[in-house]
Structures are given as C-alpha cells and as structure tokens.
Design brief:
19 helices; Rossmann fold; 569 residues; five-stranded parallel beta sheet; alpha/beta; globular; six-stranded parallel beta sheet
C-alpha cells in the first residue's frame, strides 16, 4: 500500500508538503505527493515541490463535452428558476440568467471531478489516499472544497476510504461593486461600459469609445478590470456602502426575498455536493451574489433611471454582475452590445433572449449562442489589424512549428494524455523521416514542458526557449505552424502576418473549443490527414505556397465587412 496525497490545485502544494512531513514523522514510508494534471505538475516542479509524481491515467479523458453540456443544462434550470423568483422584485431579471456563469463553473467542476475520481479509483485501489479540503466554497477562478469533497464521495462509493484534511487557504478579497453615485456630478452618459478581461484589446476599445463621439462612463469590474485611460469611470465601493444610499423599502423587500432564494438553491446544491453543511456555505455565497446584483441594479436605477443611457457595452466574461447591468438595460430599453474578452465567443452568452448584439472576430468559428442554444445576433468587429502577405518564393516545407494549447481548465483534465502524446510522437517521427526541422512551443501559461520533454525526447532547455517571446516570435522562420488539439486565438496573430496555419486534432472537441477558429479559414485535420497534407507540402514546393495564399485570401474575404467598434455603438 502507498500513501498518496492528492495535489489538485496550486494552493494545495504547501499544505501537501506539510502534511507529508507530519505523516512521515509517524513512521512508515513517506507519502507520495501525487498530481493528476500535467500543467499543475509543471508548476509544482518549477516551485520546488520535491518528489511530486505525475500519475498519468490511461483512459483519463473526462469527456469535457458531456461535462460542459450537463453543466449548461443545470445552469439553465437553476438560473431560470432563480430569475423567476427574483422577477417579483425586479421584473427585468426574468430571462437575464443572473449568475448562470457561476452555476456553470460550479457544475463543470463537480462533473469533471466525478469523472476524474472514477478513472482514478482502479489505479489506486490498494493505496491510502489523502485529500485536502480547502475551507472556502466554490467561486470561479479560485480553489474550494468542492473538488476534494466530490472526489472523496466518489472514491468512497468505489469502496475506498480516503482521508480528508482541512486546508486553510487565504480568503478572497471583499467584493466591491461599481458605485454609480461616484460618477461626475450632473453626468448623463450615453453609454455605460464594463469590459473585464479584455486585456489584449483594452487600448483599442478605449480609443474606439473616445472616437465614438458619445459620452461614456466606465463601470469598473471588481476582478479582471482593464485600463480605460482617459474615460470617466466610477469608483468601487463595498456593497453596504451602496445599500446605505438606497430606499429602505427596496432593501426590506430584498431581505424578505433572499431566504426563499436560498431554499430554492438548496434543493439543487445539496444533492450536487452530498453534504448539507458545505451546500449551505455554497448557497450563502451564491445568495450574496444575487444580493449584490440587486444592490447594483437599484443603484443604477437611483442614479440613472430618470435619464437613462442609450447603450450598454459589456464583455462576454461575466464576473458576476451581468445580471444587474443587463436587467437595468432591459428595463430602460438600452441597446446591449457585447464584445469578446479574447477575440472569440467560445462560450455561451448568459441570456435567454436575443436582444444582445455580439461583435465577433472574422475568425469566429460557429454561431454565438445563448444558454438555451439559440443563435444570437452578431456583427463583425474590426480589431484594427492590417492583413499582410509578405512576398516569398515557393519552397518546400523545411521547418514545422507545433503550438500546444491548454490540456486542462481550472485543474480539470480535458483529455487522455496518452492519446495526446501519441499524436505528437507521430508528427515528430514524420519530421525525422522527411528531414523537416520541428520546433514545439508549449503554452507558457499552463505548460506541460516536463512531460513533452520526457515523452518526445526534446531537450527541456530548448522547449523553454521556444516558450519565450510572443507566438509570432516563435513562428518567424517556420514555413508552417500546426495548432495541436484545441485551437488557439493566437493563430489570428500568425494569419495577420501572412503565416500559414493548420489545425491538427487528436480527439473529438466540444463545441466551445471548436468555436475558437473558423474551419473554413483554418482547416481541422486528424493526425493521419495532417500527415498526408504534410507529404504534399514537403514534396511539391508550390503546394505550401498555394495554401498560404489561399488561406490569406479566405481571411481577407471574411474580414471584408468588419466594422470598427465605434460604428456599432
């Protein structure tokens, strides 16, 4: 029997090391610190976690497509019921899918961890497992007790007896909300703007808002806020500061409604987590999120209700406040315009109605849909980048670049790494057999460098060098770039430079992953079909040249009707 401490998150590393010392001091063999996610393993090794073992689970695909579909279905049901309840206080809440993103990420975590635990169980049937249980409920982007609790429950059902250990983690900072009363005195903005996470395009969006000729007020985001230098913005305030300026009757009606909301949510969350106490703490966090949305909605009403703006501009990354802003917009008939936080709408829009105009990149793959699977209204957005096609003479394929994207999301594995590595081994073997130089770039954020180095026999220092600089820097000198597995929006930068790109798939992708790039511009091929295509590129100099020019022409055609942001406002 082996003692294994499962490390499921970066915040587990230090407590796992401490627990290992405690258990070792009791005698017996030191416990093995075990990681299931190769990206997390890379991070653990880089931060000095001694003896961390990566346990590669054959057949470890968590079927992310099924998990995503189930999570979306659950979010649709719960947020729909909650919206109906909240509409008694705020009629425009109905159909606004308040906090549906929170519900989706919670359920994705639960379903993903269940699948991982079921795959793990037969591999550790004779081991003593130890699970760390952080003492905070789930919130997007932060660790919680949900993964440990879910895996503990599944493993016990499999006949095992994993031990749970409390793991204190730093609490999140107190939530702050945009304070409409902090807007400049007398200001009656034509446009309200809240675009969290648009880091790559914040300068462009800011310039476009300034050029629009409209008076703009920025509602800052409590998390993932981006700079909008030169535009007036509200300050952030604690929820109670907003509550202190609101009508007491509205606050009393809110406080009377929240217990009913909590009871409704418990009917969904307690069966999901299988633990009443943890479910109650999770519900408390979600109920507070609803309360904060109501406070923001009422504050917007009080400050701007008499002279409402004309337009609401938001990004597709809901940090938890879309409900309030969308409901305020609907209440006053504002146009709602949404931009992608990172070029592409690869996730559903948290809305039940098609009254949001979604501005897409010309490379958007597939339709933009809402939580009901209905198509959203869209328009093509010009991201202000010129399309270049440098003049190069025809030549055969000599240098191939392979770009690896993420293999996990929030420590939930997306695929079977054995299948993943087998496809890469085939590509490298082809390069060796045809005398083609191959360069591999691991994703800098979420790298799996140690695994790639060990499995493919590539020098780790060489892989580390390829991670430096931008993707365009890496691609310079490559005759062709292969995106591998999940497409990356970074491919757009390559195409804008006139560099040819092809997508290689080693497995079935879920719809949200396929939306990352238009297949008509960047073809998606299996590993076998990719090898056949590479045969043509290496054997006929004109073949790659023609592909590059035709791909560029398709991108130019797709971009022909794109308009700058100011034109859509």
């Amino acid at each position: 029997m082996v003692d294994r401490i499962l490390v499921l998150h970066r915040l587990d590393i230090a407590p796992a090391e401490q627990l290992a010392k405690q258990l070792a001091a009791q005698g017996g063999e030191p416990p093995v610190l075990t990681v299931l996610d190769p990206s997390l393993h890379t991070y653990a090794v880089s931060t000095g976690l001694r003896g961390a073992q990566l346990l590669n689970l054959r057949g470890g695909d968590v079927d992310s497509a099924e998990a995503a579909a189930r999570a979306l279905s659950a979010a649709r049901i719960i947020s729909g019921e909650a919206d109906t309840l909240m509409s008694a206080l705020i009629p425009a809440a109905r159909g606004a899918a308040w906090l549906s993103f929170w519900f989706r990420t919670l359920h994705t975590t639960v379903y993903g961890c269940r699948s991982i635990a079921r795959t793990l169980a037969p591999h550790v049937a004779r081991d003593q497992l130890h699970l760390l249980l952080p003492d905070v409920p789930h919130r997007y982007g932060y660790h919680s007790y949900v993964p440990g609790q879910v895996m503990h429950r599944v493993l016990r059902e499999a006949g095992q007896a994993p031990r749970l250990w409390t793991n204190p983690v730093p609490p999140q900072d107190p939530v702050q909300l945009p304070d409409p009363w902090s807007a400049p005195d007398g200001m009656a903005p034509e446009l309200l703007c809240c675009v969290p996470t648009c880091f790559q395009d914040s300068a462009l969006f800011t310039a476009e808002l300034q050029a629009s000729g409209k008076s703009v007020l920025v509602l800052p985001s409590p998390v993932y806020d981006v700079p909008t230098d030169g535009l007036p913005r509200c300050s952030l305030a604690l929820p109670e500061q907003l509550a202190g300026r609101l009508d007491s009757a509205d606050l009393q009606a809110l406080e009377a409604l929240l217990p009913r909301l909590a009871a409704l949510l418990m009917t969904h969350i307690e069966p999901l987590l299988g633990h009443a106490g943890m479910a109650q703490r999770q519900v408390d966090v979600i109920v507070e999120g609803y309360r904060q949305n109501v406070l923001l909605y009422l504050a917007l009403q009080a400050r701007f209700g008499r002279q409402a703006p004309k337009t609401l501009l938001i990004s597709n990354h809901d940090v938890g406040l879309h409900g309030a802003m969308v409901s305020f917009a609907r209440q006053h008939g504002l146009r709602i315009v949404m931009v992608p936080h990172a070029k592409i709408f690869n996730s559903v829009v948290p809305s039940y109605d098609q009254d949001v105009l979604c501005l897409t990149h010309p490379m958007q793959g597939g339709e933009v849909i809402d939580v009901d699977g209905c198509r959203m209204a869209t328009g093509l957005l010009d991201f202000g980048r010129s399309l270049q096609l440098p003049s190069q003479p025809p030549k055969p394929l000599a240098t191939l670049g392979i770009v690896l994207n993420a293999v996990s999301a929030n420590t939930i594995m997306l695929l079977d790494m054995h299948i993943y590595m087998h496809g890469l081994q085939q590509l490298l073997a082809w390069c060796g057999a045809h005398g083609v130089h191959c360069r591999v770039r691991c994703r800098p954020n979420g790298s799996i460098l140690p695994m790639v180095s060990a499995r493919l026999g590539i020098d780790a220092e060489e892989l580390a060098r390829q991670q430096q600089g931008s993707l365009v820097d890496f691609a310079q000198g490559c005759d062709l770039v292969l995106g591998y597995d999940v497409p990356t929006s970074g491919a757009f930068d390559l195409l804008e430079q006139g560099l040819p790109v092809l997508q290689t798939l080693c497995r079935r992708l879920e719809p949200e992953q396929l939306r990352m790039a238009d297949e008509r511009i960047v073809p998606r091929l299996s590993v076998a079909d990719t090898l056949q295509q590479l045969d043509r590129f290496v054997g006929e100099p004109l073949a790659l040249w023609r592909y590059r020019r035709s791909q560029h022409a398709r991108l130019v055609a797709a971009s022909a009707e794109a308009q700058p942001l100011r034109a859509w406002l």
